[in-house]
Specification:
Pfam families: Ribosomal_S30AE. By secondary structure, the protein is α+β, with helices and mostly antiparallel strands. Helices cover 31% and strands 35% of the residues. The chain has two helices and four strands. A four-stranded mixed sheet has the order 1-2-3-4, with helices on one face. Helix 1 runs parallel beside helix 2. The longest helix is centred in the last third of the chain and has 19 residues. It is globular.
Length: 97
C-alpha cells in the first residue's frame, strides 16, 4: 500500500495510529488492484469508539464503518468489513486478455 493516513480524535491513544496502519495496511493483499491510498479516522463518543476507513483503488473506492468498545476491537472489526468487500470484488472484476 502506497500511503495510509490515520486521523485520531483527542481521546484516542497515539498507539492506535500504528495498530490501524498495520491492520488496514495489510489489506492490500486482498485487493483486486493496487491500493493507492488508505484513510482511517478514529473518534470516540463517551464509551464508544467509531472508525471509518476508505481505500482508493485504481478504479473504485472501498469504505467501511464500525463501532466498538475498544480501539483494537473497532480496528479489527473495520478491517474485517473491508476485507470482505475486497474479497467479494474478485468475482466482479472483468478479465481482459
Amino acid at each position: 500500500m502506497d500511503y495510509i493516513q490515520v486521523s485520531l480524535a483527542e481521546a484516542i491513544p497515539e498507539q492506535a495510529r500504528d495498530y490501524a496502519s498495520a491492520r488496514i495496511g495489510s489489506l492490500d493483499r486482498y485487493a483486486p488492484d493496487r491500493v493507492d491510498f488508505a484513510w482511517v479516522n478514529l473518534t470516540s463518543d463517551k464509551s464508544v469508539i467509531h472508525a471509518h476507513a476508505r481505500l482508493d483503488l485504481k478504479w473504485v473506492e472501498v469504505q467501511a464503518y464500525a463501532e466498538a468498545d475498544t480501539v483494537t476491537e473497532v480496528i479489527d472489526l473495520l478491517r474485517e468489513r473491508m476485507r470482505r468487500q475486497l474479497v467479494a470484488m474478485h468475482s466482479r472484476v472483468p478479465v481482459h486478455n
